[in-house]
Sequence to fold (132 residues):
Amino acid sequence: MANFRAHQDRSTADKISALLENLEVQADGRSEILTQMRELVKANYPTVEETFQYGGLLYKDGSFLFTGLFARRNYITVELGGGAYIDDLYGHLEGKGSKEGRKHIRLFEPSDIREKRVEEYLALASYLLLRG
Fold:
């Protein structure tokens, strides 16, 4: 995966900024989680495109939804494209797996990113993406 697609139209960038500012004002930790997750995705998967849809951040490679980050009332969800097809060795994936095969991980604290092994789950989702 080459370079993170930095190109975003103005309204996408504005929507992402508004989301981050809103979460920062609430000062409940979700802003920190979302910021750390964005950095993790950008650093490790530079070719995915960041978009704003459904009230959250989506990371796509072409038409494949790689991952999505959504602010819920008390936590951030990390939606994993193909999550239903991941062998969940750590037991952190939740959901039934939609028709698109998505499952999610709930992050309540910034430390959950490490403790729930989110980077490993993203690597598994990336593997599914590359396998096609």
Notes: Residues 10-131 form a domain with the Aspartate Aminotransferase, domain 1 fold (CATH 3.90.1150.200). Helices lie at 10-26, 30-44, 112-115, 118-131. Residues 89 and 125 are 14 Å apart (CA to CA).
